[in-house]
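=== Given protein ===
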Amino acid sequence: MAKIKYVLAFLISCSVLVGCASVPTDPVEAELYHQVNDPLEPMNRTIFAFNQATEKAILRPVAKGYRFVVPQLVRNSIGNFFSNLKQPVYFLNALLQGEVKDAGIILGRFTLNTIWGVGGLFDIATEAHIASPTHDFGQTLAKWFWSGDGGPYLMLPILGPSDVRDAVGRGVDALAEPATWVVEPEIWYAGWALDKLETYTRSMDLLENLEKSSADYYATLRTMYRQNSAKRNGTAKETASAGQAKPAYEADFSDIDWEDDE
């Protein structure tokens, strides 16, 4: 129950942030707002600085040690296992979004990998060239209740870039995961940490190179997140018509924000 309380507190905090952000009345400021929708930028940059310090002091050294000690084959199995655990949530969201075909594919992947992939340690479905659609609650909100912009940009502690809609989606998906209800809190937290470590290890080199090549790393990540969020939620055309700047980067942000990496 403790982890559920944390998730609920997280969702309430996000709803408060929605009320705190308002569109500026000045035309110039309003145009800038629509380009980045980052009215909480001072707070976000403070959190970003904390994340960077934590990454360099703790996460990056741990990830490098993990990559050095743990063989690639074992790391792949760890990633496959946690990816397979997320399939029931993808399945539920696919149904909520009316994507019946994707729901069937997801169910098939989960069944195949769970039975023949030894509980998901081996990704038999991908080896069989079966598609791997992903659907989260942020996308569900975007389709039915919260189209267009996902709300103010948020830099979440440890978790990284998000917006209000996707942050709420993360919280709901966390509550919907079967492991949340059947696994002891200590085991759940340990598994969550290992999942994030494995995902970060795969994206670590990309992040490091991106930081070195960016004049403003914070702004670069924000642009990448906004672009890929619009693409993932099917709002890219709406975003462009709303006067937002053309994104400068193409990337799968699932690697950057340490969420799912398929």
Confidence is low (pLDDT under 50) at residues 4-12, 14-21, 237-262.
